[in-house]
Amino acid sequence: MDHTNHTRLTAAELTPDILEGATVYGADDHKVGKVDHVHGDGAGSTAIIDVGGFLGIGAKPVAVPLTDLDFMRDEDGDVHAVTAWTKDQLKEMPEHRH
Fold first, then answer.
1. Quick one: which of 12, 19, 67, 89 has the fewest CB in 10 Å?
2. What is the 3-state secondary structure (H, E, C) of 31-64?
3. What pTM was computed for the model?
């Protein structure tokens, strides 16, 4: 997916309501997971990403600083994120416990 024409979200848009459910694309531009929920508000927040699994079953939640994710909207207005992390790197992270 070419993200160059996608609109970056402003700091004011980095809220749980907008970010939860966003698809996350990794360094190789493959889907690496989905934002399950967000802890905190603004740039100091942490995104909990469900990595792996199939149809939400067997996914592993990992915590990633919001600053590691570049959130944007595509041509349809759908929010997604791009990160330098790969799916394998995210899978190696410790599991986030509620």
1. 12
2. EEEEEEEEECCHHHCEEEEEECCECCECCEEEEE
3. 0.90
Nearest residue to 23 via CA among 45, 5, 1, 46:
1
Question: Which residue, 36, 80, 84, is CA-closest to 56?
Answer: 36
Number of other CB atoms surrounding residue 54 within 10 Å:
7
User: To which residue do tokens 């995210």 refer?
Assistant: 90
CA distance 74 to 52: 23
Strands 79-83 and 23-25: parallel
C-alpha to C-alpha distance for 21 and 64, rounded to whole angstroms:
15
Report CA 84 to chain centroid distance, whole Å.
11
pLDDT tens-digit profile of 83-93?
A: 999 999 999 99
d(CA 85, CA 10): 22
